[in-house]
Amino acid sequence: MTNVLVLPLLVPLLTAVVLIFFRESLVIQRLLSVLAAAGSAAAGIYLLLRVQSEGIVRLDFGGWEPPYGILFVGDSFALLLVSAASVVTALILIFAFSTIGERFEKMYVYPLMLFLLAGVNGSFLTGDIFNLFVCFEVMLLASYALLVLGGRKVQLQEAFTYVTINVLASWFFLLGIAYLYGAAGTLNMAHLAVRVADSGHDPILTVISLIFLIVFSLKAGLLLYFWLPGSYSAPPAAVAALFGALLTKVGIYAMIRLFTLVFTGAPGLTGSIIAVMAGLTLIGGSIGALSSRDIRQIISYNVVIAVGFILVGLAAGNEAALSGSIYYVLHDMVVKAMLFLAGGLMITLTGKTKIGEMSGLLRNYPALGWLFFAAMLSLTGIPPFSGFIGKVLLGEGLIGAEMYVLLTLAFASSLFVLYSLLRIFLNCFMGESIIGPEEQTPLRKRTLLPVAILGVLTLAIGIGADWLAPFVNDAAAGLADPNVYIEAVLGSGGTADR
Amino acid sequence: MKINDVILQTVTKIVVFIILTFGVELFISGHHDPGGGFSGGLVLASALLLLYMTYDIETVHKGIPFDFKKIAGLGVFLAIAGSMVPMLFNEMFLTQKKGEFQLPIFGATELSMELLFEAGVALTVVGVVVTILLTISEDVN
């Protein structure tokens, strides 16, 4: 038992509520919001270190023991994601301070971002599937508000699709939970794992698992990603970066958690469905990234490609592939935030959104150009950046699982990522400069600082992969052997009385 | 065209108090019986809704000069902060304690920590419902 486990949810939530009372005071808003995100990151990292020596920690709310109460479970996988999400949010907040504008700041943009972080962290930590639904909703409600904030026509248009799709998906989620409760009689994830394994993988449970697959595919953008590129390119850069870095990752997390812990029994069926979906996502995302000319669209399609890439690891399902996926999720959070911020800066600095409309920006903003270049290398998987290690491990895992088609698709998609981003770099940063040094919009250092820090982070994850390895290996081992998680929640005797 | 709503106004003046009392009753009985912060809060909000419909927004606002967004915020704050109190005593988050207290008018009363949480829920419900209704009515104008 440790109350620290609830802090990554509680600190952003409480701060967001307090900030509602300080609507007019921008200094307090900025200071408290960045402190809250940093505090939640600190709690995440502290727990991550503690889990290495003590094993999985859990907190039973109100002292109600599992499987009866709701609980938070902190294992390495969840805590790695909590730490990364909080750090990225803190940096995006710093970026927002100098770019988002006073009108947004007075419309509760920081409290909403913190609500979103609270929902994301709660989803990572919870050990109860209904609580997962609630945390999803907290996150989604905040994202609805963030998407329409500003009220431009395109935002409202995209919000309509986004809200409809997500309400529908949430309804299916609720339906799936009801079916699952009817079939297994519990909502605690560890208890569910035991019951599902005991039932000898009843076909009805396989059907229910397919409902969850559809739900999380909609949320993560696995194959069902048609809503994603539009809605991620509508809001301002800071909000889009938050969406691109965090939202799909929660769907990915839920899918990995559920299909490694609870629905492990029918890998022949769900495993191959996920494999096909991931493959198609890689193809569709690549086509999208190559065919659009709008910078924001290209970057959004890169999110889709990453989703496919990460879930290829789940389809393979062995430990090497899973640790590759974990590395890649962490890497992708950092580098997608960086890419969205850099792309957003290009658009705000020039006032243009399409590839052919800008040129020679490298002369005007050299630092921004090279940061974009670094993000591109990292996404392609060039060492020493962070994309490399994840891709290597995933490749190993796929060879181990003898999935050569997926292997080809996954690595071919890296080339398309490289090509789509190189097209932006060559067209927009290289070439003749159209804006003279006098007439260019100045780029302030503190706007660029968070992007630079994200750049340093992606380099650090790449170089410090050895240092990160014990955490990732522990997380992957926990995913590969669900009994560790089950015992931590129900106790070693808990599995006896089923 | 001005509608004659003398009957509505007169009835509202009395009925609002009945609704408010019922809301409080629901809120307090919630610990052991059906009711609680959510349903109590909804009933309280419906009394306010009746006021807003009978009189206009400005008149009611003169009598109840609160920003309902802040009331909702206060409610969430109360619920979270109340649940955090056990953490100070090294108990698990959301742990509830109760005790018997001698109160002046009510006599021996059982009071539970949960009251704080439920009060937070009630305030949030009132704040959110009224904010939604006011936002919609602003749109029409």
Give an overview in words:
The complex is a heterodimer of chains A (498) and B (141). With 498 residues, chain A is mostly helical. Chain A has helices at 7-20, 26-54, 76-99, 102-105, 109-125, 129-148, 153-184, 189-198, 203-220, 228-233, 237-261, 267-291, 295-316, 319-350, 361-364, 366-380, 387-400, 404-429, 445-463, 465-480, 483-490, and strands spanning 57-60, 71-74. Chain A has one domain. The two termini of chain A are 23 Å apart. The mean pLDDT of chain A is 91. Helices cover 69% and strands 9% of the residues of chain B. Chain B is built from 5 helices and 2 strands. Chain B has helices spanning 6-29, 37-54, 57-63, 68-88, 114-140; strands spanning 98-103, 107-112. Chain B has a two-stranded antiparallel ribbon with strand order 1-2. The model of chain B has no long low-confidence stretch (mean pLDDT 88).
- Please, how many helices of chain A? 21
Strand portion of chain A: under 5%
Rounded to the nearest angstrom, the distance between the terminal CA atoms of chain A is 23 Å
Q: How much is the radius of gyration of chain B in Å?
A: 18 Å
Mean pLDDT metric of chain A: 91
Largest sheet of chain B: 2 strands, antiparallel
Largest interface: A-B, 15 and 16 residues
- Main sheet record of chain A: 2 strands, antiparallel
The helix content of chain A is over 70%
SSE run of chain B: HHHHEEH
- How would you sum up the global shape of chain B? globular
Overall geometric form of chain A: globular
Q: Record the strand order, biggest sheet of chain A.
A: 1-2
What order do the helices and strands come in, and which of them pair?
The complex is a heterodimer of chains A (498) and B (141).
Chain A lengths: L6 H14 L5 H29 L2 E4 L10 E4 L1 H24 L2 H4 L3 H17 L3 H20 L4 H32 L4 H10 L4 H18 L7 H6 L3 H25 L5 H25 L3 H22 L2 H32 L10 H4 L1 H15 L6 H14 L3 H26 L15 H19 L1 H16 L2 H8 L8
Antiparallel strand pairs in A: 1-2
Helix pairs in contact in A: 1-2, 1-5, 2-3, 2-5, 3-5, 3-11, 3-14, 3-19, 3-20, 5-6, 5-11, 6-7, 6-11, 7-9, 8-21, 9-11, 11-13, 11-14, 12-13, 12-18, 13-14, 13-18, 14-16, 14-17, 14-19, 14-20, 16-18, 16-19, 17-18
Chain B lengths: L5 H24 L7 H18 L2 H7 L4 H21 L9 E6 L3 E6 L1 H27 L1
Antiparallel strand pairs in B: 1-2
